[in-house]
Records
---
Amino acid sequence: MVKKMDIFWAFVIGGAICVLGQLLIDLTKLTPARVLVFFVVAGCVLGGLGVYERLVDFAGAGATVPLPGFGNLLARGVKEAVDERGLIGVLTGGFTAMAGGVTIAVVFGYFSALVSSPGMKE
Amino acid sequence: MTKHLGDASVKFINPPSIISAAAVVGPKEGEGPLAPLFDKISEDILFEKDTWEQAESELMRQTVELCIQKSGLAAKDVNYIFAGDLLNQNSGSVYGARSFERPFFGLFGACSAMGMAMSLGAMLIDGGFANYIVANASSHFCGAEKTFRFPLELGTQRAPTASWTVTGDGAVMLSSNGRGPYVTSATTGAIVDLGQKDVNNMGAAMVPAAADVIAKHFRDLSLPHDYYDVIATGDLGMYGLQLLKQLLAQDGFTATDRLNDCGLLIYDTEKQDVHAGGSGCGCSAAVFAAHYMKQLRDGTIKKILFVPTGALHSVVTIQQGESIPGIAHAVAVES
Amino acid sequence: MTAKNYEKLVKEASPKSAVVLNSAKAFLVGGAICAVAQVLYSRIEAMGFSREDTGIMVAGILIVTAILLTALRIYDKIAKFAGAGTIVPITGFANSIAAPAIEHKNEGLVLGVGAKMFAIAGPVIVYGTVTSVIVGLIYYFVR
């Protein structure tokens, strides 16, 4: 069942996180690469503190799809792994959590390079 | 009799003549206001090659070939080729000039390359060391993006002060005899760095160097400020040109109305969405070879001070927190 | 002219980015991507998949779409309009992997595609991994 309010809040919170990114790019000297790193680290720290999960409960994809959600995914993964395996989980949790997304991006990124070539900007 | 004047200038006793000029550009420049003046406009951004690097070399090769052709000479008559570009290790010029098998000097002066090439070429000819010299500079938008910025397919937004690297090449043939226009004097720029670090505002980084070399030129040669019909900088862009006028005016320079910038001429800055204007070695080179050479020949202008400007940073030095050193070379051409 | 005086002149002469307009565009496009993801999420979860699997599937659909649009040379054109709206969502991460891989294919499949693929996304993975280990260590001792 797709709830209209879920979509609304995903739109608003997801959009708001992007606005924060835009402000960081336009108003500070941070390059997009630094902004992305900042977002992942921030998401992971907030995830570690358990704060980000509350935003996820509220905004759903609006919180998980922007890059802080990626950081939160790592934090959630590492915590679950620590619960299951103790110290070994510290090493495996983060990477395991991102395995699916990164593997898809690498595989499709690889094949995109085989079939496509760069073109002129407009 | 010494030919060196003042702090950093030379005045030629037997001024070399520019006997031919050629300019080849890419598709976007072919939609700009100077389109009718270019010798050739490639519809293909790859110049029918496979990579950006090969494309720029082909662009360079075609332009130099055309320049030699238009001079009525053969490649073997050329004593030296002076050429510069923006790719690492001057790849555009090196691979472009490879097939000519002529004595070659590769120059790096970032976008001031055409000023370097013309100054050095003119000095060699006036010194009696050569009769025919090709001065050339090239740039390619995609090659420059790959070298200095991001992959082309990466989603990015450009800052309003950013410029657009010209896909283009300009070449001139300097000769010990000819009917003009003549390269009459030149002032070699020093590296000037006022601590600018924003790679999205390179006009601002280069302005102090341009102001410095222009002021030196007039001082060294004791010329009145309105001596030249046009003082054309290379690629300061619209905000840079404004800054240059401000800086020179503060310095007591009275002819700021003669200043213009090649980066503002090659595109329609209203319609072509290039932000601050055009840039790159090929910007000033192609605009000089096509637009100003025509004006010199048809008498629209008689004297020009051509001042290609360059930002001498590298990706590595910027990542290490260094500022952007600027340079500009002034070359006087009179008909 | 000192560097400080000149910096002041440059600031006066240089236009600022259109912050409000850029932010509005980033909000609309970034929000829209998240809204679409929310619809996908609800639909897939309703089929009976676990929360984790649904998450991977939604991320997978977004990533594949973004890479497809990158390969078709469309993603950068949307991003020119959307700015951070297409950089911050997971689609931007996917674009940052595909774009350098495509750009550097001419330098070969190993040192071009293979090595350059992470030129932009690499730092995200490095800092994400390091932070996750620190978070995990602290969690291990305080839980």
---
Amino acid sequence: MLVKSLKRFAIAPLLLALASCATAPEEKVSLLEQVKSRGELRCGISGRLPGFSYLTTEGTYTGLDTDICRAVAAATLGDPDKVDYTQLTAAQRFTALSSGEIDLLSRNTTQTLSRDSGGGNGLVFAPVVFYDGQGVLVSKDSGATTLEDLEGESFCVGGGTTTERNLNDVLQARGISFEPVKFETPQEREQAYLDGRCAAITADRSSLNSSRSGFENPDDHVILDEVLSKEPLAPATVDGDDQWADAVRWTVYGLMSAEEQGITQANIDEQLASATSGADQENAALRRFLGIEGDLGSKLGLPNDFVVQAVRAVGNYGEIYDRHLGRGTSTFIPRGLNASYTDGGLHYAPPFN
Amino acid sequence: MVESPRSGSWSRQLLLRIRRGLFASPLDTLITVVLVVVCGGGLWNLLHWAVLQADWAVVLENVRLYFNGNFPVSQIWRSWSWLGLLAALCILTLMPSKVVPPAVVRLLPLLWVLILPIGLLLLASGLGLEPVKSRFWGGLQLSLLLTLGTILMALPLGILMALARRSELPLLRWLTTGYIELMRGMPLIAVLFFGQLMIPLFLPEGWTLNRVLRAVVSLGFFMAAYMAEDVRGGLQSIPKTQLEAARSLGLSPLLTVALVELPQALRTALPALANQCVASLQNTSLLAYLGLIELLGISRSILANPDYLGHHLEVYIWLALLYWAVCILMTSLAHRVERTLNVTGHH
């Protein structure tokens, strides 16, 4: 309820309109140029999401979301460490972008029509970096495998979020009665579930996964196969700055394309040497991709070897994924939709031509 | 060891007192037993958990983050030295007045005002040090910085508003009354959201106001309204006859306020003001919900580290201890000031 009333307070469209009137529509310098002349990328992150962005013991940020920031910094500035991170809450993130406090929002933001459109939040989304979806976590003992098995049960859910609405929509459509029990934070939700106040938790599958890994016996709990919603999480930039949006978009595509071609952080220099004066000298597509030939980078306003810089800094998309969400990490999420299209997933980079 | 008869009678007296105080009647006995069982059981469970079940690695491995935030490691001495200076100042203030030279005692208020600018110089830049951006400020250090900033801004503003509220100029009186009532009628979190979300939109293009500064400004404006009311309470406790006496002595209105009214009013308002200071430390934790990495915020970031998943109980108990320790320190400082003022008041 608090969040709801605050949202109403924060999103006063009238005030937004007033603020945009007050600033004269002068010729703006692209954020790409601003980032280059500043020598630093200002990136908005959550900072509180296991696997996506969190603080290490050394006091640095790490995670899938922060690696996207690092890749963009490497592509634009040649140095992945030149990132100025700002922690943002869900309510602040769009204001921070539109007021120019940050250049790039890499904070598990679901791409939706109203966030994309000028009549809404006026964002430009880069390619989806993580396909999430709302899931349901139950204890193994309950024996539930479908939502129908949970008929009449109570669900622990975040109050006032889209999660609650999705649950309502899906269960009502299927005629399943249920009782929502609302909580503000994931911790409260987990505790209530563990105390037996509800039979299931519903949240984004990535968040359920990290909840489960924190439980004493993670194997006693399962995430159902059913997915209640589509949550494509994508980095975003502000509307009306095509040059900057393109630079971010193609940096992300570069990471995905590198995975498709088997170019990794470990073999990038080898590949570069081979394409420059080795076995791959005749491979024009690879030479273009690595910036040895042609001017793909400079068309975007980036160095021609921007992909090389990004991959050398953080690895290809698959490597980023494995580092933070792969098997062996405590936030393991099977790749599923997040595999490259060559492995049956959804990540598919357009040609670098 | 041989027990002397004196100590024996002493222990017997103690037993007697215990019996009289705790087991005087069957009802008293029942209440005592129930309380001991409930509290003791709870405490035992907590201890059992803390010693045997809890994994304190999440606290022990991140001590630096809790205290200094993610301040650059090469510059961390600056953060520690500010916290050290602050601790030294606390100790100096709390020491018995006989031990500390009077000259130092007189300097203390000035030192307390100066500790904030010194902190800013040390932490941000200046003195030829490498600049460190405010996004690297975090943990307890940021909480304390926010608290000090809030108090130093709210206290003078509150005093001015308390005086303005009693002013004979109607416009000034109405404006301050309106402001105070407005601020008191709003929840702090709404004011903070306004500060973090609205101020950037109203600033001209290309202007940015630091997030920490925005937080201090919002907290300060909010606290000032409450402090104004506390000071006004103090002002009202002064009998009118004193003002008449001051006037008949030929003191100007300004001098009457400065020499007669304020010293007494502030002394009366001191317990309430100290209360507000402690509250303002606790209020800083709300900023965790606005993306600042003060003590609570940074703890939430640490909890997101996959290595420490599920250890929030340990972290929150540690935080409770830390906040409690700082609050106790603040209240004892306030007691100290109260005592000092009362002594001088009797002279």
---
Amino acid sequence: MISSPLLRSFRERYGYPDDALFIKTLPGREARHAEIPNRLHPRLKEYLAGSGIRPYIHQARAYEALADGEDIILATPTASGKTLAFALPIIDRLLTDPDARALLLYPTKALARDQLRAFQEIDSATGAGMRPAVYDGDTPRDARPGIRARSRIIISNMHEIHHILPWRRQWADFFAGLSFIVIDEAHRYRGVFGSHIALLIRRLLRVLAFYDADPAFILATATLGNPEEFGEQLTGRACRLIAEDGSPQNERTVVFYNPYARDPTASLVSETTDLFSASIRHGYQTICFSPSRRLAEVIALRAREEFPAESCQETMICAYRAGYLPDERREIESAIKDGDIKGIVSTNALELGVDIGTLDSVVMAGYPGTTLSFWQQAGRAGRSGRESIVAMVARYDPIDQYYMHHPDLFFETAYEHAAIDCRNPIALSGHLLCAAAEVPIRDSDCRYFGPEMKEYLAALMEQKILTQTGKGIVYAGSSRASELVSLSGSASGGYRITHNGRLIETMDDSQAYREAYPGAIILHQGESYIVRSMNREDRQIRVEAINVDYHTRPLMRKTVEVDTILESSEYGGFTISSAGVTVTEELYGYRIVRYDRVIGSADLDAPPFSFPTQGLVIGVDDDLLAGGGIDDPDGALHAAEHALIAAMPGVVICDRHDIGGISTAFHPAAEGPAIIIYDGYIGGAGLSAKAYELVFRVASLAEAMVRECRCIDGCPACIFSPKCGNDNQPLDKAGAAALLRALRDAIESTRSDEFITQ
Amino acid sequence: MGRSAGAFLDAGTFWRQRISAAPGYSVIEHDNRFRAHIARSPVFASAYQRCMVDRDALLRTYAGSDLADICEGTEVETDEGICLRITEEQGHQLFPLHPAEAERHLIRRLRLVPGIGPATEQLLIRKGCRTIRDLRYIRRFQKDAEGVLRIIESNDYRAITTLIAARMGRTHPDIIMASAFSPEERFCFLDIETLGVFSRPVFLIGSAEIRGGRICFHQFLARDIDEELPALLAWRDSVPEDATVISYNGRSFDLPYLADRFAYYGIDHEIARDQIDLLHITRRMHRSTLSDCRLGTVEEELLGIERGSDLPGALVPEFYDIYRRTKNPGPLLPVLKHNRQDVLSLIELLRSYREMTG
């Protein structure tokens, strides 16, 4: 089965012991075409026939569903011909209805411009005269009125929509005719960011309803565990799922390599470099994805050293990262396309919006965190007519190690669910302010904003930020609502992180408290920065770029109060609840850590920080902890908490830094021992609420991770947490294994199959 | 909670704090002029301090007072509720520049005839063509010259401004000349006060007209935001349909802003067709001689009006907001005064420009 010299060399190098290497060949697939839909406009039929295009089945189905008036969510891989799937229904409608218009929303400006070219081509080939145009922050001021008046296909982004909604008078004609809203890369709108986008879409729909427009949605997403639910949460409308991909697929070979199976002290850098160089040496043009910029540069440097000077020009292997000027980027991109560059090392942050086409082989330095990113990165391999290899080197980390132990499970049903929570109080109240500045709010608007709307409106009127008038509730604040509310990632947009006066990102208050204390190292798009100051007055965090090989870990005392129990279930010995909680964190210092070794520490004097959020409360019977197999109840609870937090990202899309937890021998809300896992964002991000629904998957995954880890009393691959506020003390691995087993079994024996397998 | 950096109490408090933390202006320390140029809505620290002192004094003086104690207004009823109208009359001297004078002047603007640019105009003047009437004897221009002449001699304001705007641009001082053809009763001098530069309520519309040889100045005040729509409607109904709106930056600010607010409430409102934006004309005429083109500067340097302790425009939203939330009418006083002066200055500025062009 293993044919190529490269795979043979992998087998020779890494094939011992057996479980260090896993190789699986994913069969290729022929294209599956559909007939050109009968209803299609003759001009489009002509265009398809003339250019020899036969639509794939998913493109035809998308057309049929939209022609029947449905909203759709398309879950097919990148490069499966999504542009045509959007273009057929849109141009078809625009040709038949001279007033119809379409709005296409992409997550990045680069992607928007790519798509503009694609639409311009189809537009001119069909002679449709739709004048497709990009309308975003880079659109010159004097070009804007013309685009609004004449373009029937406008390509933009969410941020732009947030700011143009209050200018709706200028958009009246466009909005009144709007027939389609395309949201590409929809999976990016998840977590707190997704909650903001979902509310923004409610605002857009409300303004459109003011103009009697009711467009159809075309969503496109990478593969998720819950595409239909996600689509509905994002848009508020039931979306028909189209997941059967008709595009052809090359055969690909996936290689999982676990260096820690042979040597617990192995180095991720050397092992990745080794694999990367071997791939290049065998003549495969290879891209390597690394979790940080520093690692990317080290890998590129080491890989270059592997090649004798004469065969290796400087350009043969290069690092590719954020921060290049557009010209530099284009130069690298074309060198990759021409084959002059044989190896590229990039950070994970760049998996999207990089126009480098496909290569022969992909190497991942560590699991990229979600199956979704894994497959997006894997999609970079697959040049037709050649063997394609996707290789992943595992890290010493619970999820990586779990998939190394269960590679087959990875290919079966491991897709994580994406969470969105439209009830986050800051996001919801903030978007109500924006909405009130767009069209006066009436009672009936709770169909967009939910039953909580009235309560927030009352609180905002109490403060006179909103006022009741004869026409509805009106915005009366003295700052621009859309400037107060930031969409970018954090619920409150609490702190601005600036580097030399330039904004690099915004951070939620709670996140800033935990991660951006003075002295902390923070990562942004794979670049590391050190926090120099945090100003609570002007809400600015000033950072400096720094090249260090250590990171920092906060030390904190945490308490969690349970305010309201939202839902609760009993499982023999465990009471599991989804709850509204208030978390109080008190940061008293931080550790400086290099390669998991503490090399120093510093004290901090920060006032305690409290915030409301959502939590998953697991109450444990005292008897269970006193029972067999658990020597140290505190250590068992603490270790189980870490394992559950480590398992969460395997089930719900999030980073383990998005969640926090505590464990305690007595919690008043549980009237006994409890583990509480909470969303690390003010108001919550729907993560622990999702974990409540999928608690069996989380518990089983945590249980398997602990049980299967070969260490004796805990390691970073099972119960050690890189962000533990108590220095990973105390921990009882055997106790945690027993406790988690009891938890998993209790759920399994109580609930129906449906709950277990969802 | 004591020493706590607590994050979220309730939505109202949270956003109120955010709004207070993000004022719509920036205070320029040490009155540094260089910094003022790069800041958004700058307010010099000295002026800011003075205003804060004034604000506190006003709040003390008018604690427990009623709006009726500071201004005499009458309630105006509209279909959408009531608002307050404050009216003041003043004597008015006819604007200088008689239509006949304006006509004599315009007739010498050869460039009003299509096909004649600045160079050709100079050439024609050198050759002895003094007026458009003379052009009738040059075959090339004969037909166009007759057309233009007909327009000028019609003394029709709209036709003449359209001609000037098309040939010389909307910001050309000849627009002032053309205003001589409009009866004074059609002028509406306008200035609005809002909660911000965009997408927030307008709460005060100052509007002056000339009625029976006197200046009739109205302020339509929304005592709270629910009176915004009544104020808009009351203003709209007070202005003749064919009014020429005279403003300072109204073409890009006041009038589109009003149209946005009407649209916000779902009411169609056509932006006035005839406008004279004195900011544009000031820029064209005085950019090189004035230190800047703000209305306050123009008043001081051109009209010799000294405002004294005027409230900077950037602080107007905050003062109104305090009045609205406390119902203490004190902070509203400087806002009403500021708006009144802005409108009255427009009248003086038009007078001054008419004198200059005449």
---
Amino acid sequence: MRESAERYRSGVMPYAQMGYWDSDYEPKDTDVIAVFRITPQEGVDPVEAAAAVAGESSTATWTVVWTDRLTACERYRAKAYRVDAVPGSAGQYFAYIAYELDLFEEGSIANLTASIIGNVFGFKPLKALRLEDMRIPVAYLKTFQGPPTGIVVERERLDKFGRPLLGATTKPKLGLSGKNYGRVVYEALKGGLDFVKDDENINSQPFMHWRDRFLYCMEAVNKASAATGEVKGHYLNVTAATMEDMYERADFAKELGSCIVMIDLVIGYTAIQSMAKWARRNDMILHLHRAGHSTYTRQKTHGVSFRVIAKWMRMAGVDHLHAGTIVGKLEGDPNVIQGIYSVCRDAVTAKNLQQGLFFDQDWAGLRKLMPVASGGIHAGQMHQLIGYLGEDVVLQFGGGTIGHPMGIQAGATANRVALEAMILARNEGRDLWAEGPQILADAAKWCAPLDAALKTWKDVSFDYASTDTADFVPTATTA
Amino acid sequence: MRITQGTFSFLPDLTDAQILAQLRYALAQGWAISIETTDDPHPRNCYWDMWGNPLFDLRDAAGVMQEVNACRRAHPNGYVRVNAFDSTRGFETTRLSFIVSRPSDEPGFALTRTEDAGRRIRYTIASYAAGAPEGRRYRSRDGDVG
């Protein structure tokens, strides 16, 4: 009793002493676990900093409040239970924090994130804070719908198996009229792509209103389908100012027979979940463009890692997620990107520190989502793309299709031939890393568009150091 | 035109040696091979006719190839494709599907447009060949029906 009186005496007390640090705590199977990278201010004890993050992301405020005693407060307090120095980065620590399941509303990314990243990122005792990874318990996952379609059903609907899907984003991304825009879509689909895509910022502007775009794009999709005998699609971007607008656009896309619609990450988690439910109800594939993510995912010391965003998006329920190319123009360390691909595609993701995966994650039957590799990739990198990314991925060659010297159809054909030749060779047991360029060169002998593509882009690569890299490197062990 | 369904339709028609290599790959993954044929290759026709049940217990590529050839002989002017099915959790679906023979003449598809209100258009894709009854849809260049 005296102990309790002490604990709840009015005033300020270190978070660690308030019950937000427990080094003996064993996380329960039903706990949500988060690992943060914390960079405390000079002189701030890392354990106290970790306890502060646990406190501010669960029940605490800056001072003691007696009203805690009206609740089962010890259960509701998040518990920091482990703090490790980050290898090779002085002043940074990984803090592991466990959260009781009852802290979260079922099926709500908004509620989950309002706690986990709600208040703590501006907290003064920390110089910087980054959410590195989360373990979502099966009990919580089962309250989420997940991807409306998923990789397996998407492939069955499209009748496309055994190879990555091929896409391209219409360029220029802004300025084309509806009729000219549809021309690009038709040429690319007829030439061999499976999908063409609206870019993130094409919504309904003075040069092209959305209905015009949708009508011309569906003419292009159907015409290309008849010309090839294949199922084709165009991601119609339904991103708009309000949910009412988005539903109106999505309903129109459905009415026109589109198999897929698209949204941007900037619409927010709740809007994404609403569209996921709409997509499940209407048999639509839902493509998500991760517009805006680099503002908080790219820097290693502060923000939210993209692998966490990928987990949230699999729970929220999207079918396609841009997840990095490794070889293209946008940020992408090979280990980190492969970890993100695992989050999208595994039935059970195994802990892999080198890839930034801090936990085993059982996905509890949640459908798998198709990662999308887009941004500065071309046919000459096909062996690397398949080697790094595997076959359940959409490879999007925008400039690499539309910028082809012989035209858009030729650009699409070059990519499709390069892809099929590489998959054929891989299945025959050939070593793509060693023989990839030769496999492409052999196919280029009978495919003039591929030959031209290889010549045009042969020297293009984007070799810059990544900012978001893995902290753990394998240590050599004696055999 | 050339129908480009399947994993390898943008490549020149696969030789028997190339088909065998793909069969070996699929069998090595533990997948079951099935053979299907059709004379109605509409992009939404997902149920081609099965050439018997999937060959769950036939693990020998040469043996599978004999079945492929038997199907091709029986349907010299139809489409024949090879599928590989993966029964492991999280997949339970086709993992590879490629055309191994096709009619010598592929007339392709008509696109019919029906105009509707508000500039909407209803699209229908119909195979030119499928206008004839089953079994009489494709002819080889020398006039045989397949």
